[in-house]
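[Protein data]
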Amino acid sequence: MTSDSSSASQPGALQSFFKNRDWQAADFAPLASLAVIFVFFAIVADGFLRLSTIQLVLEQGSVLAVVAMGLTFVLLCGEIDLSVGTVALLSACLCGILFEKPFAAGPDGKAEIGFITTTIVLVVPIVAALIAGLVSGLLTVSSGLPSFIITLAMMNIATGLARFLTKSKKFNVPPFLKDVGNGDIFVAGVFWPFSAAIAAVVLLIGHIVLTHTRFGRYVFMTGGNREAARLAGIRTKLIVVACLAICAVTAAMGGLMNAGRLESVSLDQNADLLLNAVTCVVLGGTSLFGGEGSMGRTLLGVVTFTVLKVGLDKLKIPGIQDLDLLRPFLLGIVLMLSLVINGLVMKRGKN
């Protein structure tokens, strides 16, 4: 599943990220889906072909990209994590609660805080998510139960803790997160979302780990044939634990970024994060059964999903009232068709 590391000339990491040498003919199915969706909305949706559309896609897709990065590791090793949405929520809630403590910004989060306090407010939720991921991983490999059962329990644990700690109240977040969620960086004469730059770095790191490290090769081998990998001397249980821990950390990062974008924390955030992230990973062509996929495919899935959502938001159908209520239905229909077509094309490509 990985490229030969002994080749005479290795491409740069960034070049390799956008030109994945592992892609096969079947990988063009997700790309074709993206092209069809893009052309369709370019024709029927007013104002779709604008720079603002690209900026909106980058802004809305950044959180999904970060969460999908960690979920890709889990799916590649043949597991699933159902707790990413609630872990993201719990991390954001912990951040808001800590931010409004007396040692930080105080009630309502109105006081200014320094660099060290900001670091504490941001790091503690990520560490908590890391612990949750490690617990899920250790219980999965020690109990012999499927990871979806363990992470389903963790999902309820995270939800309960978030409700108990917040008492269903809304909390403010540090100004740094607001800058991350809504700030811009000026590149090539255009302002681009800062969150998109962070997502790009996260995906690039994930790509490098998967394609240029021993751990990445072990992830593919564990997902491809776990028993063969174990007999080859790979500590497959440790790989599973590490992948679930990575997924929990990226979920926390996504939750914090989303809280910054919304400029507050409440219990109704990240409700669809799990399903959307899984959809992005699978839409890009990563197998649910492990051993097949890449960060390039995940990026393609995130872009396809986000372009579809943005396009539907811009779509106007004459004669149909309350189109906003119909958009989730249309989104589900198009996603179902895309996933089925991608699956059939990839299956035929392997035969």
Q: What stands out?
A: The radius of gyration is 21 Å. The chain has 14 helices and two strands. The CA atoms of residues 89 and 255 lie 6 Å apart. Strands lie at 184-187, 190-193.
